[in-house]
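// run 5 | inverse folding | seed 20
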């Protein structure tokens, strides 16, 4: 495959290594200093675009890639409040997009465990639930997209929780029906996500800790391999 990268920071470079290891070619490496190179891409020279950038850049990149007629993989988070507009943009041109709050295979296993655990714990109201995530100090959004995904899964299964509470808890206590989602930004932490249930007697916890970016990078390349030839919008979890 010929793959173009949009965003050539730490994640972009990690994706490049995984793509080359799987015998793919990097057609372009596009970052802030050479954005005009995006115009040179077309379906004849590029099979897929992998985009890991800033939330403020995502929709502009999406529209540009869709206009080129190339499938796109994005690991950018922080845009899901505009999900309907994104879906409309992709469907309008019969394009293809695969997205995820986290492309790590291990995290997607965590997602499956989280859904099952929440369904079980729905039967035990004496347990309260919280979610906590940790990332490096350069991350642009908080809580993370992965934490939001975990929270939405809990809300879907745990009838006693109806909404997420995060920054607002600096000024008040959570209500009984709020799911507390906390975050830490420090140093170069790659990523840790924890879902816990606590009672007066004990606690239950599931957690994923990333040791490096390879897991995310490999997942993004696998997603690019999968999306070629398809149309529509997909989540990485559908591959599982």
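// decoded
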């Amino acid at each position: 495959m010929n793959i173009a990268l949009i965003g050539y920071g730490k994640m972009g470079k990690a994706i490049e290594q995984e793509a080359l290891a799987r015998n793919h070619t990097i057609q372009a490496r596009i970052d802030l200093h050479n954005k005009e190179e995006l115009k040179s891409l077309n379906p004849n020279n590029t099979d897929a675009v992998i985009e890991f950038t800033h939330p403020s850049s995502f929709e502009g990149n999406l529209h540009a890639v869709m206009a080129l007629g190339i499938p796109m993989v994005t690991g950018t988070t922080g845009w899901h409040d505009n999900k309907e507009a994104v879906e409309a943009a992709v469907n309008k041109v019969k394009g293809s997009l695969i997205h995820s709050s986290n492309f790590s295979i291990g995290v997607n296993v965590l997602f499956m465990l989280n859904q099952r655990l929440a369904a079980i714990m729905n039967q035990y109201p004496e347990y309260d639930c919280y979610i906590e995530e940790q990332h490096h100090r350069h991350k642009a959004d908080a809580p993370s997209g992965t934490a939001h995904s975990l929270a939405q899964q809990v809300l879907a299964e745990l009838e006693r929780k109806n909404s997420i509470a995060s920054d607002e808890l600096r000024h008040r206590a959570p209500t009984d029906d709020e799911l507390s989602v906390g975050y830490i930004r420090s140093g170069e932490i790659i990523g840790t996500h924890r879902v816990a249930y606590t009672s007066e007697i004990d606690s239950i916890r599931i957690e994923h800790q990333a040791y490096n970016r390879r897991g995310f990078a490999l997942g993004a390349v696998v997603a690019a391999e999968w999306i070629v030839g398809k149309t529509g919008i997909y989540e990485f979890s559908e591959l599982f």
